[in-house]
Protein 1
Amino acid sequence: MKNLKKLINDIVLRNTDNLFNTDFLLTWEKSMADVEQVLDIAEALKSLRSHNIDTSVFKSGLAISQFRDNSTRTRFSFTSAANLLGLALQDLDEGKSQISHGETVRETVNMISFLSDIIGIRDDMYLGAGNAYMREVGDALDDGFEQGVLPQRPGIINLQCDIDHPTQAMADLAHLKQYFGSLENLKGKKLAMTWAYSPSYGKPLSVPQGIIGLLTRFGMEVELAHPEGYGLIPEVIETAARQAKETGGSFKVVNSMDEAFKNADIVYPKSWAPYEVMGQRTELLRNNDHAGLKVLEQKALKNNAKFMDWEADANKMKLTKNGEALYMHCLPADISGVSCEKGEVSADVFEKYRIETYKEAGYKPYLIAAMMLSNRYEDPGKVLSELLKKGTKRKM
Amino acid sequence: MKNLKKLINDIVLRNTDNLFNTDFLLTWEKSMADVEQVLDIAEALKSLRSHNIDTSVFKSGLAISQFRDNSTRTRFSFTSAANLLGLALQDLDEGKSQISHGETVRETVNMISFLSDIIGIRDDMYLGAGNAYMREVGDALDDGFEQGVLPQRPGIINLQCDIDHPTQAMADLAHLKQYFGSLENLKGKKLAMTWAYSPSYGKPLSVPQGIIGLLTRFGMEVELAHPEGYGLIPEVIETAARQAKETGGSFKVVNSMDEAFKNADIVYPKSWAPYEVMGQRTELLRNNDHAGLKVLEQKALKNNAKFMDWEADANKMKLTKNGEALYMHCLPADISGVSCEKGEVSADVFEKYRIETYKEAGYKPYLIAAMMLSNRYEDPGKVLSELLKKGTKRKM
Amino acid sequence: MKNLKKLINDIVLRNTDNLFNTDFLLTWEKSMADVEQVLDIAEALKSLRSHNIDTSVFKSGLAISQFRDNSTRTRFSFTSAANLLGLALQDLDEGKSQISHGETVRETVNMISFLSDIIGIRDDMYLGAGNAYMREVGDALDDGFEQGVLPQRPGIINLQCDIDHPTQAMADLAHLKQYFGSLENLKGKKLAMTWAYSPSYGKPLSVPQGIIGLLTRFGMEVELAHPEGYGLIPEVIETAARQAKETGGSFKVVNSMDEAFKNADIVYPKSWAPYEVMGQRTELLRNNDHAGLKVLEQKALKNNAKFMDWEADANKMKLTKNGEALYMHCLPADISGVSCEKGEVSADVFEKYRIETYKEAGYKPYLIAAMMLSNRYEDPGKVLSELLKKGTKRKM
């Protein structure tokens, strides 16, 4: 309880920049104070719940989710976060709605927002489109609010787009903070964000981009490794490099998993599609060119197959700092011999770190709730402080 | 706040007829006091929310929705209304349920209602069937309640049927009241409810019927315009004519959009299928006659195409009172050059009134909530008064 | 109110064995005190609600449902139960999720449970698999909780598996208790759980198994009747026989509906697939052998057709005690001339008992809520007592 009081006091005193009434779309649009604030609010919410203290700051209100791609864990994290704060979930399912009937985004967005507080969106299938869609939604909300259509301007939370996956990256950061004891302790640690082999193609780039876009801000030695031709969005690479420089860390791109693993404190082996393939895929999908897509898939899979040795196995783990680097993954991982014949990680390595990856995922509901709270409340510290003081039991 | 207190006082003092424990199926089954009461309750709820006052009058309870046709805006309005009052939503999705497995309506209705307070139904596809279905549901609920199966008799709200679209018509009325300052000010105003061209066929008749069935009760000059052969249900036409006469207004059917627009204060151009086509369509759908349906669609679209000049464009708007009539639409509109090549309204006219149509739609969640509240509470004024007195914050 | 206070006092004083923090998977894994406790809690919750007393014991929290087979009534019962206690529902829809993407059960179960209190599962399609799946989920939850992944270990409620349908059997028991006045009055009563003809095949065995697995514990004369070859799972038969012996009742298997109906106080005619057919079906489904499934279906339906006289009609009902046995069914029933040409029950017999079957179903939401409450609270009597004392209104 004493720690919790101190934590809430830190939240009260911190000056943030782009949280209140500001969408959470890319972590690098947020200041370091913003990032720390969201981490601390998440921790405070988690602590309040563990002390069985009610955190329903809304008596009514909707959190809307729009998943333009499949999701289990993020869907449940978003629902859990909404429920934790007292909001009811309403899913915008384009199959069930009239969106296909020629409604423009601008109109739909207003129609669903009359009594909504938060909108969470996953749109990660099309390179160049997902984040843009979220900003289009934001513009429509701004317009609706300014024109008096909406009594409030709901906040948007990016639940994964083509550029970033901020709820994942922030959960990963929370996990690292807990694992290494503090954000300060991350300074000088080597993180290997590396491509890994997968028998599928077309996986979004948002996780590796989210990781290098956030973790280069803590003075870490970040090494991005991938086979030639598997590059990420150039602007994100530039951002990562700039941030590393600014915080006294480093950022390097290499074409060898072994090199990245060497002496690493943390490894994050994860498959993704090459930037160029994602671009071509987007074009083909837009043109409904199914034949073209098949050709592209075959070509991409064939190319992937050249790099089947990009697997995090016991031998590669031996290369890391004392052979004991922390293995991370956003889940689900392609585990060799478990979920596929040959994949991103060997079964023994995954099993060793399985519980850690589950804990990593467990931060997500609280981080989403923290994003919601800091978006809706100008003084989230005061809100948390009142919750603690009231001390209403969550479970009677 | 002073206005709100006066409004709530009006609600307390008003004697209503068919609201408490009575389904909301057709506006013309409600007295004028009922209509005014629902409008006022909606306004009070909107005002309470804008003052951040909690309106959860239920600590638990379900609002069930059954959408037998697609919906975005009404679905979100219904969810928002339920949430505003503290009810949780449960959708009855016939795809997921065992209804198709030979359950009778009577049985299903009881099975879903043990702890339900409200059932909202959209069933607008079949002429002669949608409203009848709602009454069948109502009879089953009456029976279940009388026989002791149900501890309460849930109220039904018509979310659009083959005859009326009361939540839309009431939202439209609320918009007109706000736009013209009062219901009294509607007296003598000319409203043109007119058919408009659309490149689709089979749109329900419920919106135009809902409009003439409600707005002929305020002493307005209501003109219904449509091409020959695009008539509405005869009984609704009779009701409209009778009501206009009783309230010192007028009701006229013409076959020219221009004539209807002439000197109009309000225009409501909206496509619908001819009554006869809807009847044939219902028959063909019942017989699963897909070939017959295709022939009918082709015939209907071909016939529609004769009336492509029934479009609300700038020239037609010039015919209206000072060229400044209020344009209304239930949305989504078929906008020429935007959502279709040629449609109900030109892009410039729609854009001019776009924000007004969004505001029009914004009344719907509160009107549905008002229908719920007046159905469940014998003295809704007292309830609202207590909410105001308590003044619990919706958002902490 | 006096009765309610006495009822709650009984709950406070009763010592139970396997309720708190223990999954509800099979009724015969629970002690008689457990069974009586759940019945009494359900009755207390029903009474509190009928007195308009709020029973939300959670301020936030999720109840997760996973329906691997269609459901209307159980889905609504589960939602109602969750809502009654203040939990929000989140459905785990395998179509919408990434489960098909190679996630293991172990992982998914942890991912959805970070802030969940209850998980309800229906998995009744595969003989030998449904109950096993629930235990696999339970093991994953145990592991996640022990390893510190989950802050609490959610409780599992069996919403129908291949072996038992405990929420149905308990609702049936509650109905019998009310109908005959007490559990003691069931002693010596004859219950005929009999197979009945249906024009479908592949119906689960869980209802008859649930009935003989629970109702042999009250000193009743239980007679299971089915055509030769329509046997149930042998272990359940053994359990039923043992329990009947222990409680001074009897258990008998016969091959004649008439014999079972003779002098019966209660009849439960319900179709199911033969144990052997369900086993073969499971095998064929696993192998995706569609041709084999068609052959099996034809064979099974042809065999069913030999027993079309296994219909509960007026003549058969005359064989029962004074011709007035209570007819029971889990619904929906195959009613001859109503939901099918020839089915489990004649239209006149069903109509006579229709309202009783609806009341039978009406206990289910409260029984599920009682299972939730007793799983989450070590002292449910104290909780109910506090709710009564507080007396917060459910409906303002």
Protein 2
Amino acid sequence: MIIKCLKSNLLNGVQTVYKAVPSKTTMSILECILIKADERGIVLTANDMEIGIETRIEGTVVEEGIIALEAKILFEIVRKLPDSEIIIDTDESLKASITCEKSNFTIVGRSGDDFSYLPEIDKKDPIIISHFTLKEIVRQTIFSISDNDNNIIMTGEYMEINENELKLVSLDGHRISIRKVTLKNNYEPKKVIIPGKTLNEVSKILSGDAEKDLYIYFTDKHVLFEFDKTIVVSRLIEGEYFKIDQMLSSDYETKIEINKKELLDCIDRATLLVKEGDKRPIIISVNDDNMQLKINSAVGSMNEEININKEGKTLMIGFNPKFLIDALRVIDDETINIYMVNPKAPCFIKNDDESYIYLILPVNFNTVS
Amino acid sequence: MIIKCLKSNLLNGVQTVYKAVPSKTTMSILECILIKADERGIVLTANDMEIGIETRIEGTVVEEGIIALEAKILFEIVRKLPDSEIIIDTDESLKASITCEKSNFTIVGRSGDDFSYLPEIDKKDPIIISHFTLKEIVRQTIFSISDNDNNIIMTGEYMEINENELKLVSLDGHRISIRKVTLKNNYEPKKVIIPGKTLNEVSKILSGDAEKDLYIYFTDKHVLFEFDKTIVVSRLIEGEYFKIDQMLSSDYETKIEINKKELLDCIDRATLLVKEGDKRPIIISVNDDNMQLKINSAVGSMNEEININKEGKTLMIGFNPKFLIDALRVIDDETINIYMVNPKAPCFIKNDDESYIYLILPVNFNTVS
């Protein structure tokens, strides 16, 4: 195989597929990036058996061929070469010579035959969504998936499509995050659970361009994201998702309107008294026109007041401050509404059209404070 | 004690003295910052027994007093408070209340009596040098001190002052780094060894301003740096430094002139084939009008050519690539001269007026490559 391409193109391609190279594996071939050069051009592939990424790069195929090169060393070499044309030339003994200007590296590659290729996906009926929108709704929900493998379903996000509405949901047993967006087209109903890792990696590769569309294809077992010159293939999580609708309720006893930044900054300050792993709650007293936030720990105590608009009853309620911070960080609204029932019932942070809903369970503060 | 000051002033002060707070210590009082408020104003102090920093901050003393507060928590609180006036109010039980707008923290402090105060230094005959110059010469030599405590003298830098010349030297057994600068005034001869850690911390606090002067005072056992509203006191390293002049020589068999960036980039690329801890040398062949650089490792090999101007003999010599990189990174010249004798003798990178000299020992490459 002999290929020629600009350093910038090769580097972009390697960085894109690198996200599917496992950091730890017992199958050393998975640590490689496959370079395939044929009449269709130059394609790079990486695959960790759960998620596979393939991207096409611009360049010239001088001689067709295929080789698997260790991802880390390939990335390091390409990154440090001058900003010029790179030639990769491999021989039958699988030695790969990488040349750029007066610099030449020789590394030993592996046969493409050993590589695990991506599953073939029948591409039909794609869901179309902008890069920006997908990246945003993933960011706004991904923090509340569970990283505990005991319940595999909680490690994924639930995606539901109904006509022109797409809903993305995550939950971890203490909280639920929901974002809804309107799509340009109408679709048949669809319910799938996509691994959180897949959504994370896809959103890292996405530019965030609001003008560019991304295509999502589904089969029974797989999801395929197609954008720019890249495809990402992942298995879906099998099983049935939790019945979210039963957990949501629009009843409330107390509704407060509060400046989001003031609340976030205050809780952020409070957490500095709490060491990692210490489950110290922040205790909120909702009064008629202000809210008092208190935290006590071995280090010291904090006390702060924030002005609010209140409807309904006064209330005292405790929360894990991290859960409030996670939700507040991904809400763009300047002023938010918080709905509460009593110190034992979930609280909701949501807007009027419910394009976002964050449910957070309170904690019992009598026993810990 | 009651003091009032702007968040920005308090934060700057805390950050400045924080550098003398030890990260690990069995004496918990050393983890504190001492705040002293009297008729002379507000002074913050930290002291890890090797290096002590004291800085004066702007603010109002409402009630004189003294308290030691845990540095980490004080820093975190001040950093996260709103950009407004902060009031610190302590009572007899050593409780400190830190208030800013509607936010109030309470932490428990310690008595100032437990604190280890800085040694009293008799300030006379200071050496005057600009912030910029001191910061630069430290950066340009500090990398070749030894971090091995077996030879305490190698963990410091040798400073020699003679009339209006200041020389700073570091060495670690494989290399020597020397920088010389001209001072504005003339001084009595002086030879001291300053701990590398002290120079590092001082240079981190320094703004790098070429217009501002810094005063250095010496006693038999201590050095004191005074600048802005801050003083840094450190013990000196006792003992006699190595006889540097005997190790320097101006004889050479080969002199090359080379573009510094090309050489640095090339060696930087070469090192990516070498894993941490692997002492693989880079082998340099000096030919008539170019230099060839080669490295071989288990990962692969690299080969590169750079154009040079050469005087004297051709030569093949091996180096630890890290030592070349360290020296090349701190040389600002676009074109540099390298002087060599033979594959076993030290090589010198230096300029004509010897304001910098980097001596690097070669490695024997026959046995390792």
